[in-house]
User: What shape does this take?
Amino acid sequence: MGWKKGKRILALWTALVCLTGSLAGCGANGMPDAGQAAVAESGAGTVQAGMDSDGTGAADTAARDTEGAAGKEGATEAENAEEKESAAEDGGSPGMTLPPLNMPDDKYRTFYEVFVYSFYDSDGDGIGDLKGLTQKLDYINDGDDATDTDLGCNGIWLMPIMPSTTYHKYDVTDYYGIDEQYGTMEDFDAFMAECKKRDIHVILDLVLNHTSSSHPWFIAACDYLKQLEDGQEPDAGACPYVEYYNFSREKGAGYCELDGTWYYEARFWSEMPDLNLGNEKVREEIGEIVDFWLAKGVDGFRLDAAKEYYSGTVDANVEVLEWFNGMVKEKKEDAYLVAEVWADMETYAAYYGSGIDSVFNFAFADYNGVIANAVKGTAPASGFGKALCECEEKFASYNENYVDAPFYTNHDLSRSAGYYAGDEPERQVKMAGGMNLMMGGCAFVYYGEELGMKGSGKDENKRAPMYWSKDAAAEGMCRGPQDMDEVRMVYDSLEEQAADKASIYQYYKDAIRLRNTFPEIARGKTEFLEEKSDDQVCVMKKVYEGSEILLLINVSEGEKKVDVAGLTLNGKEADGNWQAVCDWTDSAQTGRWIFCGRLLTGEEQAVMSGTEVTMPPYSVLLFR
Ligand SMILES: [Ca+2]
Ligand SMILES: [Ca+2]
Ligand SMILES: [Ca+2]
Assistant: This one.
């Protein structure tokens, strides 16, 4: 091959790279990797790894020439070297030339749940802090769409950061401060400023069901009650704080003893007295707390334990949320609110009646949720699509503006690396994370899940130090909660996983990348295609503003074939003419189905032959 021809091919190759967003063999970003294609026949023949099979179009020409020039078998060493050089010129390293992201500025984000205590320690005391988190923001999102060295999350849920007596900080002693273990208010302001630069939205964990028993309100109330004469009734005029909590002379369910005479409601722990959320003064206090943090620039709140506002009384809880939602939205119209209601789906769906944006979708989480059951094979894969449709219908019946809040694990649940006991647990861990991130709504990823961290049993174990490095003495490593058992990791630390294209970490990045590229994934209405689904395969469409995306999900350890004949996508009937190498921003004009994304858990590639799609084990394929 002559030098000139080589240059021409390189130019085409570069164009192709721009179109696909991936380089030969790297397969990053969840996009089909044209460079790995081994076969590309004309007409509607067999297509591997998403090669364009049609005989026309620039992308196709590029694909052909690429195969000739840079394909693994035909290329000389010199040509391959030249290709690498070109890639380096192009973006610095393979995989750096990315297709455009498409992220409408709305509430359908991908949040990263951070336990500051265990994330990154900036001052060497072993406890994570806000400065440390700020230093690691580029890990979560560097604010540059052109790079893929970050996770791609565009939201952070901060577990409680206010002054508290415990390591977990769910017992607040001051709603207007920063716990000194985590730093100062200046640190928080600096953190917020860096988040704004990166368009990372921040929501605070707001604990309204209870305060700490060391909160000045509770101390004042108790001091007042203790000095009352025998039989004397408390007077809120003398001490308003007696009405901030639920005091009683009777020891009701969920009550703790204060002294020989008085009891107080404390559902979780004696040192977490429940607030009386029906009290007007308490509501005024909460309004001021909201003002304070909104002025700090936070984008919303995660509402802890909303089910216990009035334990056992859904209507009363919904009323509290309705008040809170209205109050917050009056102050900040586009604030984002998500409530924790740890209950069954029928129950938490009803909380959408409050008008709140989101309620965590517990049904899909945990070792026995919809996702894990499908991945373990203890429930049919089709159950995933069915459950999604069921939720969408149910939530919308309460509030048509609901935003689902899918998550897979959180700080109260065992980490997912322990869920799977099969032969290929790593593939299952990836698969389940991928399914979580293919769900509609505002998705939440618990820190460390993207590394497959371990942790189960007592709560402390679920909140182990972020696994930056296998060296516990490495810079920034936290020591974890004091009562944590030794948590043995089964998968590598970030250091190794960042360098391994097949790691859980890369898989999560690819999944988030797909989410940030195709708005249909988070925002589309699910159309479950039951006739194409079975116990191991779930086929569904997502439809958003008239644009459709097709998801094929194989949760089995074996290959699965799906014939898409009879299906229509964006007005195009499946006809076996596939397009993989494309500019999807203009896909409506191509007249062909586009293989536009995939999440693979192993070496096996997708193969399209006619209208039949062969899905690799534990894979997600996307078409548009
Ligand atoms: Ca520290
Ligand atoms: Ca980036
Ligand atoms: Ca309560």
